[in-house]
Design a protein that fits this description.
By secondary structure, the chain is α/β, with parallel strands linked by helices. It folds into three domains: about 290 residues, Rossmann fold (3-Layer(aba) Sandwich), CATH 3.40.50.970; about 160 residues, Rossmann fold (3-Layer(aba) Sandwich); about 130 residues, Rossmann fold. It has 26 helices and 19 strands. The protein has a seven-stranded mixed sheet with strand order 9-8-10-11-13-12-17, with helices on both faces. It has a five-stranded parallel sheet with strand order 2-3-4-6-5, sandwiched between helices. A five-stranded mixed sheet has the order 14-16-15-18-19, sandwiched between helices. About 50% of the residues are buried. Bound molecules: thiamine diphosphate (TPP), 1-deoxy-D-xylulose-5-phosphate (DXP) and magnesium ion. The site of thiamine diphosphate has 24 residues, from loops.
Length: about 625
C-alpha cells in the first residue's frame, strides 16, 4: 500500500476500504525509521489518520497545511513523497524533523516553536483573499499549543473573517497531552467538552445531524449562534469559540478516516472561520508509546520490541545538575519556587515537582507568562526559578526586560539547551541567548565550564541574589573539565586556568571542551598559550581581560553563539577601549541560522571544532612560537 505513495496526492488513489491498512503501514514505517534515527514519535503515531484525511481532502501543493510546532509532520512528509528522507531524518544534510518550505513545496511554512500556526495560517488566508485565489488553508495545532498565548492572539483576530465570509480551518488535535500531561484552564475545558456525559450522548446526535445536513453544521451553527441559553452552553461544546465568532465543530474521533474526510469536505464548503476539534491518542498503535506518551514524545534510537533506548544516556547532564541543585536548595529555603513552560521533564524540574508540588508550577507552553508570573512572585519576596530552553526563552525577551530587568527582581533563569542542540535544527539552536540577555540592564549572566561550576553558580544566585540571574548551560552530559582546580565564584570575576604567553584563549562556557583541545595542540606545536575561563558574560571581568593585554599578541574568544552582540564582541570592546595593540579574533557563529545535524558535525561546519580553531590561530599568530 505505502509503496503506491510516491508523490503528493497519491493517497487519493487508495481504495477507502484500505485506509485502515494504510494507517497500519504508516505506523510501521514510523516505528521502523524513528527507532533507527531518533526523532518525534508519539505525536506522529497519533496524527496518522488525521493527516491521511487532510491529504484525502486537500490538493497539494496548491492547498496549504500549516503545522503547529511541526514535530507531528512526519506523516505529511510520508504522504508527500519524502519516505526516502527518513533514512537521514534530522541528520546533517538530511531531512528536517520539522516542516520547511525549502524542503518541499508541500510545506506551507516552517515551524518548530509552538502556537504560531493559527497566526501564520491567518496571514496566508488573508493574502489568498487579497490576491483572489481559492486554495484551502488549514492549520493543525495540538491541545498543548493551544496553551500558548499566540494562539489566542490569532483566534481573536481570526474571528473577523466571518463578516467577510473568509475561509480558514483550524484543526485542534486534542490528545490531552503536551509533552507531559496538558495543563491549564483550556485543557480542563477541552476535557469537559470531551467527557461530559450529557454531551457524549448529545455528541452522537450532533454528529448524525451534521451528516444529514447538506452543509456541515451550517443550520446548527446559525441556530447555536442565536441561542446562548445555558442549556446550550451546558451541552454544546465550543461555545467559547462560537462566542468569539468562530464556528466550532466537534469533538470528533481523530482516528476515523471516513468521518474526518466527511467533516473536512463539509467544513471546506463553509465560508467562515472554523475550529474543528478532533480527539486523538498520542502514541496510538505502539503500546509503549500509548502507555508513556511523554517518554516517547522525543526519542533517541530505541529497540521497537522492548521500547528501550539503544544507548543509555551519558553521565549527569547539566539539566540534572541544575534541577538537583535547585531542589536541594529548596529543601532549606521555602521561598524557592520553580516554574516551567510545559517542559518539566526536559528541564528536569519534574524532580522539584516530586519534592515540592505546592511550590512547582507548570504554566503550559507560555514562556512569556512564565517570566511575568515569576516577576510577580519575586516582587513579593519569593525566589522564583524558571528553567526554559534558550530558544524558547526568546519568546519572553520583553518579559525579561520589562517585567524583571527594570524592577531588578530576584529570579534565577536556567537557560537550558544553550548553544547548539543539533538534531532539532534552525528553530531550536540556542545560539542567541548571550546577545539577548546581555542587552538587559541589571541582569547577571553566567556560563559554567563544568557541572561543579553550574552547581556553584546556581547556589550563589539563590543564596546571594542581587537582581536577576541567568545561567546558561548546554544540552547533554556535563563536562568535568578543571573541576579539580575549582576556585570560589566571585561576581563578575573570571579565572586563569593556564598561565602562558603570546596567545590568550577565552572559551565561553561549553566551548571549553574545544578550547582545551586547542590549548593542547598549541602546546604540542611549541606555543605556551594562556587559557582563561571567563565565567561571566555580564558583568564581564574587565580587570582580567585588560591584564592579558601586555603579554599576549593575540587574544581569541570562542563562543557557541552568534557573534553579533555576542561575548567576543563585548570582550573586543573592552580591549579596544583600553588601546590593546595586539590582534583580537572572535570565533563564533556568523549572522546565520544553523540547520540540523549532530553538534560535532555542526561545530565542524561552523569552524568551532578544535582542529579548525587551531588552524586559524596558527595563521593569526603568524610566525612560529
Ligand atoms: C514556544 C515553545 N515552547 C516549548 C516547545 C516544546 N514543545 C514541543 S512540542 C510540545 C508539546 C506540544 O503539545 P501539543 O501541541 O498538544 O502537540 P502533541 O505533541 O500533543 O501532538 C512542546 C511543549 C516548543 N516547541 N515551542
Ligand atoms: C518539538 C520540541 O520542541 C521539543 O520536543 C524539543 O524537540 C525537545 O528538545 P530536547 O530533546 O532537547 O528536550
Ligand atoms: Mg497534545
Amino acid at each position: 500500500m505505502l509503496e503506491q505513495i510516491k508523490h503528493p496526492n497519491d493517497i487519493k488513489s487508495i481504495n477507502p476500504k484500505d485506509y485502515r491498512l494504510l494507517a497500519k503501514e504508516i505506523r510501521k514505517f514510523l516505528l521502523l525509521n524513528v527507532s533507527r534515527t531518533g526523532g518525534h514519535l508519539a505525536s506522529n503515531l497519533g496524527a496518522v489518520e488525521l493527516t491521511m484525511a487532510l491529504h484525502l481532502t486537500m490538493d497539494f501543493p496548491k492547498d496549504q497545511l500549516v503545522f503547529d510546532v511541526g514535530h507531528q509532520s512526519y506523516v505529511h512528509k510520508i504522504l508527500t513523497g519524502r519516505m526516502e528522507g527518513f533514512k537521514s531524518l534530522r541528520q546533517y544534510g538530511g531531512m528536517s524533523g520539522f516542516p520547511k518550505r525549502t524542503e518541499s513545496d508541500c510545506d506551507a511554512f516552517h515551524s518548530g516553536h509552538s502556537s504560531t500556526s493559527i497566526g501564520v495560517a491567518l496571514g496566508l488566508a488573508q493574502a489568498r483573499d487579497l490576491k483572489g485565489t481559492d486554495e484551502t488553508i488549514v492549520a493543525v495545532l495540538g491541545d498543548g499549543a493551544l496553551s500558548g498565548g499566540m494562539a489566542y492572539e490569532a483566534l481573536n483576530n481570526m474571528a473577523r473573517l466571518r463578516e467577510k465570509k473568509q475561509k480558514l480551518i483550524v484543526v485542534l488535535n486534542d490528545n490531552k497531552m503536551s509533552i507531559s500531561e496538558n495543563v491549564g484552564g483550556m485543557s480542563g475545558y477541552l476535557n469537559r467538552v470531551r467527557s461530559k456525559k450529557e454531551y457524549v450522548d448529545f455528541k452522537g446526535n450532533i454528529e448524525k445531524s451534521l451528516m444529514q445536513i447538506p452543509l456541515v453544521g451550517e443550520p446548527i451553527a446559525k441556530g447555536l449562534k442565536k441561542s446562548k441559553d445555558s442549556i446550550k452552553q451546558l451541552f454544546v461544546p465550543g461555545m467559547m469559540f462560537e462566542d468569539m465568532g468562530i464556528t466550532y465543530i466537534g469533538p470528533i474521533d481523530g482516528h476515523n478516516v471516513p468521518l474526518l474526510v466527511e467533516t473536512f469536505e463539509r467544513a471546506k464548503k463553509l465560508d467562515e472561520p472554523i475550529i474543528l476539534h478532533v480527539v486523538t491518542k498520542k502514541g496510538k498503535g505502539y503500546k509503549f508509546a500509548e502507555q508513556d506518551p511523554s517518554r516517547f514524545h522525543g526519542v533517541n534510537p530505541f529497540n521497537v520490541r522492548t521500547g528501550k533506548a539503544l544507548k543509555s544516556g551519558g553521565g549527569l547532564s547539566y539539566t540534572d545538575i541544575f534541577s538537583e541543585t535547585v531542589t536541594a536548595l529548596a529543601q532549606e529555603d521555602p521561598e524557592i519556587v520553580a516554574v516551567t513552560a510545559a517542559m518539566p521533564e526536559g528541564t528536569g524540574l519534574s524532580k522539584f515537582r516530586e519534592r515540592f508540588p505546592e511550590r512547582f508550577f507548570d504554566v503550559g507552553i507560555a514562556e512569556q507568562h512564565a517570566v511575568a508570573f515569576c516577576a510577580g512572585m519575586a516582587a513579593k519576596g519569593l525566589k522564583p526559578v524558571a528553567a526554559v530552553y534558550s530558544t524558547f526563552l526568546q519568546r519572553a525577551y520583553d518579559q525579561l526586560l520589562h517585567d524583571v530587568g527594570i524592577g531588578r527582581l530576584n529570579m534565577l533563569i536556567g537557560v537550558d539547551r544553550s548553544g547548539l542542540v543539533g538534531a532539532d535544527g534552525e528553530t531550536h539552536q540556542g545560539i542567541f541567548d548571550v546577545t539577548y540577555l546581555s542587552s538587559i540592564p541589571n541582569f547577571t549572566v553566567m556560563a559554567p565550564i563544568n557541572g561543579k561550576e553550574l552547581k556553584e553558580m546556581v547556589t550563589c544566585a539563590l543564596k546571594e541574589f542581587d537582581g536577576p540571574v541567568a545561567v546558561k548551560y548546554s544540552r547533554g552530559s556535563a563536562s568535568n573539565l578543571f573541576e579539580e582546580q575549582y576556585t570560589p565564584l566571585k561576581k563578575g570575576k573570571g579565572c586563569i586556568l593556564k598561565q602562558g604567553l603570546d596567545i590568550a584563549l577565552i572559551p565561553l562556557g561549553n566551548m571549553m571542551e574545544e578550547g582545551i583541545l586547542v590549548y593542547e595542540e598549541l602546546i604540542k606545536d611549541g606555543y605556551t598559550p594562556t587559557l582563561v575561563n571567563p565565567r561571566f558574560v555580564k558583568p564581564l571581568d574587565e580587570e582580567l581581560i585588560c591584564s592579558l593585554m601586555d603579554r599576549h599578541r593575540l587574544i581569541v574568544t570562542m563562543e557557541e553563539g552568534v557573534l553579533n552582540g555576542g561575548f567576543g564582541q563585548q570582550v573586543t570592546q573592552i580591549l579596544t577601549e583600553h588601546d590593546y595593540k595586539g590582534r583580537i579574533r572572535n570565533i563564533g557563529i556568523d549572522d546565520r541560522f544553523v540547520e540540523h545535524g549532530s553538534v560535532g558535525e555542526l561545530r565542524k561546519m561552523l569552524g568551532l571544532d578544535s582542529a579548525s580553531m587551531t588552524h586559524k590561530i596558527k595563521e593569526w599568530i603568524g610566525d612560529k612560537a
